[in-house]
């Protein structure tokens, strides 16, 4: 642990490391940032832009940080008050106003995000989202990319410099988020070069620091993290801030670990134009804050110390005003995005996992005896890791053993279901490793790693516990490409065990809920029902360029009825390609996961006892869906059942049924019927579980009723 006391200065001379030109440029950038804020506020009141949130009061430490750090070399995860550092790194006022007006040429997001949601590919400013705190774990993953690349001899061209660092900023309120502590834990534990800047203006909208943070200071709470340098500084003083950030950056560049710069700043404007701080800040507090405003104190300091003259200060002001007016005029004249471009970049424009490129299903090269889904998933990952050294596998318990010295003494864990068994032993601990017990940590770090060109294949141990990661999955992973207008992407594969039929799984080891993820644009959702399909679909997931949620049904892991031989290292099944697992003419059943086998058994029973021919379709891919196969079957049979393990109401099958009614109504001779779980949770007692989950007899009864309609 390394710490440094809070730095303060009373009329000290300018820093010896900063020249007059540097100091004047710092003032220019600070003023430029403030005046852009002011111009945006004016434009908002004129209804020429649609939202405004300022960085006022934060300019000094941010410009200082921009002077220390290296655009296009270091990596940046800013937050919405970080206008000044973006200017210091090289973003132009025109680019900022383009964001404010939502212009097509906005480099931050192409008009897809609010202004002050920074992103710039050339400067390595990674697309920022609105949720506070989600950037912490992604920044850790981005910094971890240096570690993984540096230790991976299989990658010859490594996109790293060796001393780059990752900047990540947030407000004091954001340190209340759990992901802040998860990020500090991993960054300190792995000695990652992350420079965290906490811009402490003492308020999170209207909630003051003493309500947010125990003891009123995050610095006091983090001092015991190992390998962490802590710098506490007056963030309204650009010279002290420069020196503090410089020390923190050098600590990170020397690979000693992460650093925190806790900068005390002011917030002279309300949180945003949607907020009015007069409602919760009394005049005396606002007056005291105004005395620390760096746009007042710093030019006065330059004049008092003889660094600048009045005429030089006035010249800078005039230059800034002219620059802002020209930039605003250019942005206001820029065209808006064409409406039809809204559908671009939800998924990769270059790699289509539904295409023939990913269809080798008709040409398997089988070897060995039929084996289980667990074994064929494991075989796929071994093949793919041997093919592509960029692939990393991590999650809770996925390694054989975290203490490498034990590898010769123990058989190894390899996941609670053994899916990843032997991967660490074969590919090493830098490519297969355990994570903390923190689902958001797993997915957030994976996003950062993928942004740097690595290919994380991560595991969430149980679907029941995926919810802490939902923020990262929904708001970050799925949106990255779209919200950045294809500037950034994060093709992560998230494997997760799924479903019930376990005998004893109960409420917290039997959950389904695919619909919660299939409703998220930008996310591919896959659920194989056989060992062969699992192998081919996982290979497609790994090779495609989109984020994939890969659902592995626990009940199907070791069933004998779904075994297959190893189909070879190039066996792939495209997404959006269902499989007709049983031909029929009397009615169609659309299913996926563990319900497929139950539908097959029920269909066989119906044919033998009632003479009814039932067609069964295994969707395999839940998003995208093979509507062509569904429509072809319905045109033939004219009656359809949608069978699924989610709850009956609001479940995945409800959308399938609705779309069938919309698109296939002309061919239906009966209403669309659904068979699903009861609208409850899954119980522990076997009789409860059997009643709750759809069984063969439930499906057979539904088939009889539909056939008789």
Topology:
Blueprint: E1 2-7, H1 20-45, H2 59-68, E2 75-77, H3 83-89, H4 93-101, H5 134-150, E3 166-171, H6 178-189, E4 194-200, E5 203-204, E6 207-208, H7 209-212, H8 218-222, E7 229-234, H9 238-253, E8 259-264, H10 283-291, H11 294-304, H12 310-332, E9 367-371, H13 373-387, E10 391-395, H14 423-427, E11 432-434, H15 439-451, E12 455-460, H16 470-477, H17 480-483, E13 493-498, H18 515-518, E14 524-526, H19 531-543, E15 548-553, E16 564-566, E17 579-582, E18 587-591, H20 595-610, E19 614-618, E20 621-623, H21 627-637, E21 640-647, H22 652-663, E22 673-677, H23 686-692, H24 696-708
Parallel strand pairs: 1-7, 2-3, 3-4, 4-8, 7-8, 10-11, 10-12, 12-13, 13-15, 14-15, 18-19, 18-21, 21-22
Antiparallel strand pairs: 5-6, 9-16, 14-20, 17-19
Structure description:
There is one protein chain. Strand 18, helix 20 (595-610) and strand 19 (614-618) form a beta-alpha-beta unit. This protein is elongated. The chain has a seven-stranded mixed β-sheet, with helices on both faces. A six-stranded parallel β-sheet has the order 1-7-8-4-3-2, sandwiched between helices. A five-stranded mixed β-sheet has the order 17-19-18-21-22, sandwiched between helices. Residues 9-13 have low confidence and may be disordered. Helix 1 (20-45) runs parallel beside helix 4 (93-101). It has 709 residues and is of the alpha/beta class. 38% of the residues lie in helices and 15% in strands. It has 24 helices and 22 strands.
